[in-house]
Amino acid sequence: MENKVLRKLFLGFIQIHILHHAKEEAIYGSWMLEELHEHGYEISAGTLYPILHNMEKDQLLNREDVNINGKIRKYYRITDKGDSVLQEARTKAYELFKEIK
């Protein structure tokens, strides 16, 4: 039960993390997996890729397919809508942090 609750909670953190990095530069899935692992998130590719696809579907990210040595790599960048969501999430996260610290 506890893992399920934490997983739902961390999903929002992961999406904010994705938006943050997609604003700084174009990101791709395997790099984002490594980044999330460095921050202690236990997430698999099978979980991350649907998150990226849903964020694209929700118009928070734009995708560009790039041919790298014969393989297609999907790069994601933040959209204007995603940037607005990120700004609001930062504000709310900061307020929450101040309250719970």
Automatic annotation (TrEMBL):
Family matches, as SUPFAM superfamilies: Winged helix' DNA-binding domain
InterPro entries: Metal_resp_DNA-bind_regulator, Tscrpt_reg_PadR_N, WH-like_DNA-bd_sf, WH_DNA-bd_sf
All copies of domain Transcription regulator PadR N-terminal, residue ranges: 18-88
Pfam families in alphabetical order: PadR
Protein name per Swiss-Prot or TrEMBL: PadR family transcriptional regulator
